[in-house]
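Let's see one such:

===
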Amino acid sequence: MKKNIGIIIVLALSITGAGLFFLIPESGKRPGPGSLRLEDQIAAVSVRTVEASEDVLEDYIRLSGDIEAESTVQVYPDVAGTLSSFLVRVGDFVREDETLARVDPSRPGASYSISPVEAPVQGTVSEILVDPGDTVSASVPILKLGNLNSLIISARVSERYVNRVKTGQTAFITTEAVPDRTFEARVSEVYPVLDPASRSMKIKLAFSDLPEGIKAGMLAEIRLVTDRIEKAVTVPSTSIITRNGETYLFVVKDSAAIRRPVTTGLAIDGKVRIIEGLAAGEAVVTSGMNMLSDGGAVQSVGNRGEKDA
């Protein structure tokens, strides 16, 4: 019995020794590049990283505007009197000198011939301003004609942004009527004077092409591009740290966190331009940086946006 117990103890010691032999690294060898020793892995901070990218960065302002006919003409009667009838409806296309309405200038005790109201230009009837039977005068318009084959957008810019708006700038237009499409337009006119009541400046934008499905009177949501930077080195805004008046971030190199002071520029839509201090392609920490120190060991658990394996 005692002999069997001795054999068991010898076998156990042999197995333990063999396990220790394989766990202990050979003398003089170091962990390979990008790897950490077991004790370092235990102390390493888990972080997520993303590569700094080179992008086109656009600054913009958002506005709302009205889609209108590029040219609109108000039509007036030649005489005062009672509007007898309209010969057209909203949406009708009319030619120059075509009769649009009739006005009866007769008064009690005096009878006059009917006076026709003729179109001064060709266009589409966009709005009728009075009803048959109303009293009209030569100084008040009775309807509007517009060129609906050429549409523009009229918008107002807050005083805060007026110096950022110039003719020729590109804008992207969306509407509720055509929600799955974005139309391109350009600033065609900038008014030189602000409205003192609203402290805003009027601008007009012309569509690059006549959009299908867009009509005068619709509301336009406008993203007006005021600045465009090509090949800008950008990082997520979550990677930027500002403390004690200094702006910096952490990059990962050889499994170590390197504190890197940077100069930032335009920040838009969750991205920040790095003007100085970082190159495209460097691995930037986006999560876990509050636990980091310069030169400290880190362990990446995946890039931002990726699912953990």
